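Fill in residues.
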């Protein structure tokens, strides 16, 4: 299936968000440690970023690490942080060559300093790239994001920076999203779990949701293209109602 040849740009989801689940279960089925699944999952990330760029999708958000993930075994958390740093450095040339801009959302200052520094460095380095914006949700919590936005708005109202009657959905959204990124049109979760797991709770109110049985390391470009094709059918059906 060559969606690139058969898809009009208007038919594409402008923003796709993915909950990359199932690395540990994938490894366990093969008698390997969970960390092995995370390593293989990185290969899938690279393939799906390439697929999204090839299709002409503008924004791709990946749920990399939630605030709840800190409760995992310490050796697994340490490995995930090391893997993150290693691959951010490794992908520098790929981002430049393919016009990929990197952004991040979440409690970034709560990350280990070396992780925060490498992430900020790559965000600055790719700031002028325009083909695809890749957003990493790391140390992220949808509920915390909403609470923080509410606190910021209350503070501004208290200091008379914002009249209370100006509070609206659009104003609230602007306090969630410093990058002015459109809400995801399509959300994908792998591993067969049918839940959102505290991911972009405000932003996905009207998103199309797809739950995939495959674990993340088994998710392929072909699978991604098929989900996008199914999204097109759903969205066209909705528009024709």
């Amino acid at each position: 299936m060559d969606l690139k040849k058969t898809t009009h740009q208007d038919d594409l989801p402008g923003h796709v968000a993915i909950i990359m689940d199932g690395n540990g279960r994938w490894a366990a089925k093969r008698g390997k440690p969970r960390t092995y699944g995370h390593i293989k999952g990185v290969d899938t990330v690279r393939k799906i970023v390439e697929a999204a760029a090839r299709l002409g999708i503008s924004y791709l958000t990946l749920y990399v690490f939630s605030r709840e993930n800190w409760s995992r075994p310490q050796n697994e958390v340490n490995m995930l942080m090391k893997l993150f740093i290693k691959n951010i450095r490794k992908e520098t040339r790929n981002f430049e060559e393919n016009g990929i801009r990197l952004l991040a959302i979440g409690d970034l200052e709560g990350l280990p300093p070396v992780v925060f520094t490498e992430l900020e460095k790559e965000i600055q380095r790719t700031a002028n790239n325009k083909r695809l914006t890749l957003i990493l949700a790391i140390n992220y919590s949808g509920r915390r994001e909403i609470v923080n936005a509410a606190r910021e708005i209350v503070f501004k109202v208290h200091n008379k920076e914002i009249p209370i009657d100006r509070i609206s959905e659009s104003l609230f959204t602007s306090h969630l999203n410093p990058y002015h990124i459109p809400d995801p049109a399509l959300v994908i979760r792998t591993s067969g779990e049918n839940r959102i797991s505290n991911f972009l709770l405000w932003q996905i109110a009207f998103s199309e949701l797809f739950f995939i049985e495959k674990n993340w390391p088994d998710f392929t470009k072909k699978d991604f293209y098929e989900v996008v094709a199914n999204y097109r059918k759903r969205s066209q059906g909705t528009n024709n109602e």
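The mean pLDDT is 93.
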